Amino acid sequence: MNAIYWLILFIVLLVIEIITLGLTTIWFAGGALTAFVLSMLEVSPAVQWAVFCAVSLILLFATRPWAVRCFNNQKKEKTNVDSLIGRTAVVTSEIRNLEGKGEVFVNGLTWTARAGEDSLVIKEDTHVTITAVQGVKLIVEVKN
Prior knowledge:
alpha+beta; 6 strands
């Protein structure tokens, strides 16, 4: 097979991988690159195809599990409201769950808050830990 076809296949597979970022076509791009080199060395087309298939499959089965683990196992940083969980807040308005009252101040903002226990009343100026978020309300517990 003409070397230019292998080169075109290699580039197309790389472009697809860049667009999708799914770790799907990169392994076949490696096989196409190997076949391109063999084509430049004027090896028969049958051998080129066999090497393309073999290298692609070897790369797919030998390195894909490792690559997926490395790329998908990155620690994801919590953002927005999720980043508040575990933080300390200060009660600005007494928290009374039964009356539906209470506010805390955290990160420069005042939030509606509820205690983790329904009957619990948390006094103003108490430091609390945010344990969860339910809609636009922070669920808090008294900080030890």
